[in-house]
């Protein structure tokens, strides 16, 4: 089942000064149509309680809500899918658990990851990175840069890999045009919005660049 995938994914984050609910409200009011809830600071009870409010906000604004990793909560909250950061996950088994109705996203760091995930036949989109330095999801993977995404897009075209790939990890507003010119599908942002002086305005600028 071919699903709608936005060209701009906004990820909430565990921030000391702004709740995930507040982050979601700001993003939706600014025009975000894809919210990825990325919370690692609560137990399931806390996640469900917060997600009920976040799902209501997303529903009011017509935004897609995706959970990071917590696919076991999909039958308890009104979310449209899940994004798995574990690249070694059994995507077919998880697809069977969540059903074809839900959107399934995956993380990748290389064209080899993309090929393997795409060949599973059950993933709807891939977030690939890091583009550059990111403190949101610290890792030791090499930075892809614009050249890395150019290589990925060319390889995908050559091998007829038809799956949306989004650049993620340290993407700033000044990077968007050059990234999209590589031929990749879109971008995912977190810190560039969350740590901006005016998060709503920052998100509006990203939206304008990607739509």
What fold name stands as the CATH topology? TIM Barrel
Main sheet properties:
8 strands, parallel, barrel
CATH architecture: Alpha-Beta Barrel
Low-pLDDT stretches are none
| The CATH class | Alpha Beta
- Structural domains: how many: 1
Strand element count: 8
Q: Fraction of residues in helices? A: 25-40%
How much strand content do the residues show? 15-25%
| Overall radius of gyration | 16 Å
Number of helices: 8
**H/E topology pattern:** EHEHEEHEHEHEHEHH
- Termini separation comes to 24 Å
Give a written overview of the molecule.
The chain is of the alpha/beta class. The chain has a single domain, classed as Alpha-Beta Barrel (TIM Barrel), CATH 3.20.20.70. It is 38% helix and 16% strand. It contains eight helices and eight strands, in the order E-H-E-H-E-E-H-E-H-E-H-E-H-E-H-H. It has helices at 20-29, 44-61, 91-98, 111-119, 145-158, 176-180, 191-194, 199-210, and strands spanning 8-11, 34-37, 64-68, 81-84, 103-108, 125-128, 165-167, 186-189. Strand 5 (103-108), helix 4 and strand 6 form a beta-alpha-beta unit. Helix 1 (20-29) runs parallel beside helix 2. The mean pLDDT is 96.
Question: What characteristics describe this protein?
Answer:
ThiamineP_synth_sf, 8 helices, TIM Barrel, thiamine-phosphate diphosphorylase activity, 211 residues, Thiamine-phosphate pyrophosphorylase, alpha/beta, thiamine biosynthesis, 8 strands
């Amino acid at each position: 089942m071919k699903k709608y995938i936005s060209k701009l994914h906004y990820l909430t984050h565990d921030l000391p000064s702004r709740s995930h609910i507040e982050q979601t409200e700001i993003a939706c009011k600014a025009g975000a149509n894809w919210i990825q809830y990325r919370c690692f600071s609560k137990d399931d009870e806390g996640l469900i309680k917060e997600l009920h409010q976040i799902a209501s906000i997303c529903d009011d604004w017509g935004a897609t809500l995706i959970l990071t990793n917590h696919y076991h909560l999909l039958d308890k909250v009104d979310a449209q899918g899940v994004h798995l950061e574990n690249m070694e996950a059994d995507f077919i088994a998880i697809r069977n658990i969540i059903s074809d109705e839900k959107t399934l996203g995956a993380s990748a760091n290389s064209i080899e990851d993309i090929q393997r995930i795409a060949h599973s036949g059950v993933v709807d989109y891939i977030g690939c990175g890091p583009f550059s330095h990111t403190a949101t999801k610290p890792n030791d993977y090499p930075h892809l840069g614009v050249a890395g995404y150019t290589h990925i897009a060319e390889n995908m075209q050559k091998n007829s890999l038809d799956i949306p790939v989004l650049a993620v990890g340290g993407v700033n507003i000044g990077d968007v045009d050059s990234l999209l010119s590589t031929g990749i599908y879109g971008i995912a942002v977190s810190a560039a919005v969350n740590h901006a002086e005016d998060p709503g305005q920052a998100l509006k600028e990203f939206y304008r660049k990607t739509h």
